[in-house]
Amino acid sequence: MSAVLQDQDSLTRGVATTRALPGQEHLLTPAALAFLTDLHRTFEPRRQQRLEARRVRQAQFDAGTLPDFREDTAPIRAGDWRVAQIPNALLDRRVEITGPTDPKMVINALNSGANCYMADFEDSTAPTWDNLLTGQRALGKAVAGTLDWMAPDGSKHYVLKPFGEQAVLIVRPRGWHLDEKHVRVDGVPMSASLFDLGVFAFHNARALAAKDRGPYFYLPKLQSMEEAALWNDVLSHIESALGLPDGQMKVTVLIETLPAVFEMDEILHALRTRIAGLNCGRWDYIFSYLKTFRRHRDRVLPERAQVTMTQPFLKTYSELLIHTCHKRGAHAMGGMAAQIPISGDESANHRAMERVRADKVREVGAGHDGTWVAHPALIPLAREVFDTWMLGAHQQVVLRNDVRAKSDAELREALLKPSLGTITRAGFENNVEVCVRYLAAWLDGNGCVPIHWLMEDAATAEISRSQLWQWLHSDPPVFLDDGTPIDFTLLERALIGLPSKLADRMQLPGGERINEAIELLDSLTHADTLEDFLTLPAYARID
């Protein structure tokens, strides 16, 4: 850890920042740091308790326990209750765009024609100190209506559309498991979640409330109702500190962990005065399935391309989320289309867009109230599908009682059902390439990377990384479809061949860090235990 560069006055005694960048004093004012310090001291002990509960639960899964619906919360699931009324700005969310928080992206997303823009400090942002501060400044200017951006060569000047024509802003802070190492309180790093949400709320919550725009947040990677209750208390505390009405800050929770899918009613209940919906964070959900069952040889998934939403465990997850949300008066948001337009090959691009269309038809037909895209060019396609199939602002009338007609035991079996499929050599090598290229870009400060016409972020890279680890550590061994055993010799060959395969790597995002990324992936895959998140060891390597 670098030397502490800034000590605060008595108002913020005990808090320090470990880096100083030009202009950060305008964001991290003494009052803002005091606000963050209060959040840390109030909630850090509970955060650590929840993280320890995760570790205990994963140890149980490693020992053979399977996730299940909780007996102690059965009355919540059986109860006749609904969440608070959804605000007008969030009633129609048929198309949402996601992406990082750099100024150009913020302008393009808000101007994109999507209903909502999820400004992402989590999976699509590499959390360098510069990226975080730049993102917070960009969002603050966007809220104020003053954000603009000039292309470096001066060829184009980006400005915001009028407020009424912009997408509704929803901010996603980083998850409970991450620290913000550049802000230390009483000698320990503060929660990245509290930093991201706290800084944004401190500077923008009152202005957004005055515009009847929340503020609104997406909450990532929750695993239990207790974690949701912690968020609810944090938000209530912030509302009180900023003089906002209780329940002013609204949230949508991403259901992107396997444990959370068994507690969706409970998560809605814990946040019932402020929750607007749940989202099928399918890429992280697949990653969570892999991580939860990392020691279960009978639940090894086939290669990533074969793990689609038609697989029983994903189909059931999506449909149960729809039923649960609509029963409680909340929106059920669909998952992200990671495709980006394929230039130079009209036929390949047509096939890719037809796959996106089929996926969105599946979502709206199942009963989802909206969907995500990663690229602005997909917005018209997604909107056309939802406009055709969804007659109102949402479709909460689609209750999907057919899903809940099943018993808890039947639902559990479907949610945990292993997937059928194969692992090809191309699939194995693609996982290696995606991991290395994404890690290199992430280490270089880019958290959202186009690879093979897919927009890869931390969630999709995690699928590739965790699959490699599970395949390599499986006992008995796993084989490619041609009979070749998946072992460390196969991995070594793929890694050795990668630099020549990426001969033009200096032109790739993070190309100068390809070798460092190869070394890190090699270390992660050889480890005896699957690292919870690749961003944990990688975070130590960035500024």
Describe this structure as you would to a colleague:
The active site is at residues 172, 457. Residues 168-400 form the Malate synthase TIM barrel domain. Belongs to the malate synthase family. This protein is α/β, with parallel strands linked by helices and 543 residues long. The protein has two domains: 33-416, TIM Barrel, CATH 3.20.20.360; 425-539, Malate Synthase G, Chain: A, Domain 4 (Up-down Bundle). 47% of the residues lie in helices and 13% in strands. It is built from 20 helices and 16 strands. The protein has helices at 24-27, 30-62, 74-78, 103-110, 129-144, 192-210, 225-242, 258-261, 264-270, 282-292, 312-328, 346-366, 379-389, 401-404, 408-416, 425-443, 458-473, 488-501, 514-526, 535-539, and strands spanning 6-7, 15-17, 95-99, 116-120, 148-150, 157-159, 168-172, 179-185, 188-191, 216-219, 250-255, 275-280, 331-337, 370-373, 449-451, 454-456. The strands form four sheets. The chain has an eight-stranded parallel beta sheet with strand order 7-4-3-14-13-12-11-10. The protein has a four-stranded antiparallel beta sheet with strand order 1-2-8-9. The chain has a two-stranded antiparallel sheet with strand order 5-6. The chain is globular. The N and C termini lie close together (10 Å). The model is unreliable at 1-8 (pLDDT under 50).
